[in-house]
UniProtKB/TrEMBL annotation:
Gene3D superfamilies membership: Aldolase class I
GO MF terms held by the record: catalytic activity; iron-sulfur cluster binding; metal ion binding
Protein name, UniProt field: Fe-S oxidoreductase
CDD domains found in the cross-reference section: Radical_SAM
Keywords: Iron, Iron-sulfur, Metal-binding, S-adenosyl-L-methionine
InterPro entries: Aldolase_TIM, ArsS-like_C, rSAM, rSAM_ArsS-like, rSAM_sf
UniProt domain Radical SAM core: residue ranges: 26-164
């Protein structure tokens, strides 16, 4: 796989600084039961990286002591971490909003048959990736049989009350483009998804979140191999909207890797671009332990490269979907 970091300029993107820390996005493991072409984590069944007991202990301390509001669990397939349920229970006891970034097929994997019931019992928000409402497109991107297993997972969640109009059990879907293009308008695509999934499969969900593909990892490598990398980067730069800078997720979120190290976002984590913190003595990488000593990250500079244009192009992009309609 080709490394795209040397192709991402460190000087072009406008400087931005942090606001109030509201969310921890924790990458529990790079292991996954799928191996998707667009995955910026390069996750897959053979990956062994998983958060250690020591780092989990510090995570619990941060949850207890720091005024974060949201714990966003991601991977890989975060549910494949052996202590996933313990982490969820702890965060919910502390009153945190918990988001599970679920690939849906994990719900039918051996050993996870009761996972959907657990998520409902803990009132966990499910953000589920479904890159299209067509079997052909999903299976092309994610593998044969993935669409059928995803629909089965959605039906499990619907049966438990997820996706109802009252919004009590939140089920959001995630869309990303099939190739080197920007997502279509989020509101219109959400209406299309809801219409097709309801009519064809009697599936309901709350919101669709559109995410722009990042020019890194597998997707970035495929662009380089096809000679499309420079054109895609130019599309992102040409579509830049400065007003999106105020809403980018890195201003209020910290990404945590499986070793407990901190990054400004999940994409920087995959590029190994560590968060910049002043006062680190004897080491050059910020860690979860540092959050126990800091009351605020306000004003902290955010590490940027040209891949950041993916979050500010067009309607904007974040782990919560488009930044504006």
């Amino acid at each position: 796989m080709r490394d795209t970091l040397p192709l991402l300029d460190a000087l072009n993107f406008p400087p931005i600084r942090r606001g109030r820390l509201e969310a921890l996005q924790v990458n529990l493991t790079y292991r996954c039961n799928q191996r998707c072409l667009h995955c910026h984590v390069n996750a897959g069944p053979t990956r062994q990286e998983a958060m250690t007991d020591d780092s989990l202990s510090v995570l619990h301390q941060v949850i207890d002591a720091h005024p974060v509001q949201t714990l966003d669990l991601t991977g890989g397939a975060p549910e494949m971490h052996p202590r996933f349920r313990e982490i969820v229970r702890h965060a919910r006891r502390e009153g945190l909003r918990v988001i599970d970034r679920c690939n849906l097929t994990i719900l039918s994997e051996p050993g996870h048959e009761d996972l959907a019931e657990f998520l409902a019992e803990q009132d966990v928000e499910v953000t589920a990736s479904l890159p299209c409402y067509s079997r052909e497109n999903v299976d092309r991107q994610r593998g044969d049989g993935v669409f059928e297993a995803s629909i089965a997972g959605l039906r499990q969640l619907n049966a438990l009350g997820y996706g109802d109009d009252d919004g009590g059990m939140v089920l959001n879907l995630v869309y990303n483009p099939q190739g080197p293009s920007l997502p279509p308008p989020q509101a219109q695509l959400e209406a299309d998804y809801k219409g097709h999934l309801a009519e064809d499969f009697d599936i309901r969900f709350n919101h669709l979140l559109t995410i722009t593909n990042q020019p890194i990892a597998r997707f970035g490598s495929s662009l380089v191999s096809r000679g499309q990398f420079n054109d895609y980067m130019q599309l992102l730069r040409d579509s830049y909207r400065p007003e999106n800078l105020n809403a980018v997720m890195c201003r209020n979120l910290v990404s945590v890797d499986w070793q407990g190290y901190l990054y400004d976002c999940d994409f920087n984590q995959m590029l190994n671009l560590s968060m910049t913190l002043t006062g680190l003595i004897g080491r050059d990488r910020a860690h979860l332990r540092d959050l126990l000593q800091l009351s605020s990250l306000n004003g902290n500079p955010i590490v940027t490269r040209d891949h950041c244009y993916a979050c500010t192009a067009g309607q904007g992009s974040s782990c919560g979907g488009a930044l504006k309609d």
